[in-house]
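Mods, move this if it's the wrong board.
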Amino acid sequence: DTSIIDSLGDQELTKRELDKLLYSGPLRSEQFVAFDNKQLAVSIVVEQEVKKQRLGEDSTGCVVWPSAHSMCAHLCVHPELVRGKRVVELGAGTGLVGLVCGALGASEVVLTDLSQGVELLQKNVALNSAALGETPIKVEELRWGKEAAEKVMPSGCDVVIGCEVIYQHDDETAQALVEAMSFLIREDGICLMAYEFRDGLMQDAVFFDCANEVFEVSGESL
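Not the wrong board. C-alpha cells:
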C-alpha cells in the first residue's frame, strides 16, 4: 500500500534516495521521509521541519538522521526485539524509529523529546495512524533524569531506544541520560542506542563511562 507516499507527490523518496540517507547525512531538502520494509504492511512516513529553526534550542531533532534509518532496518530484521514490548524512545525527533516499533507490533510506544519537539511528534503519529493499528502511541515531554523519567512512565518499559542522542553532552546531561535509561528499563529489558562515530568522541566517552557503570554494554555495527 503506497497510498500515503503517493499522496505526497514529488516528496516521495526513491530507493536511491533512501540508500543515500543510509550513507550520508539527513535529507534536509525533503519535507517528508518514508521508510519502507517488507516487514511493514504500510510505509512509515514522517514530516521533517526543513524550514523551521527552534529558537533557543538544538534543532537537530527536526530531521531524520542516518542512524535512525539504520536502526529501523535493524528492527525489521529483528522484530522480536520490540514485538509485544513496551517501548520508550528518548530524543525521538521525528519519531520514525518509535513509529516503526509500533508498526512491528510493540504493545505500547512512548515517544519523548523536549517541549519544542512535541508538536512534530504528534503530527507524525497522526500521519501514520493507519500503519500503527491497535498499538497505543503516546507523546510525552521528557528532559532527561530519573525524576523526569518516573513522571513519564512510572512503571518503566521493556525497551529503551535512542538514535543520535549521544553527541558532545556535558557531564551533567550525559549522567541525566543514563539515569533516565536506568530508571525506565525493567528487569530483563534492553536499551538500544544508535551512535555514529564523529569528531568529539572523547567528549562522548563521558556517556559511555556512565553507561558502563550501570549496564552490561556491547556494540554491533548496523
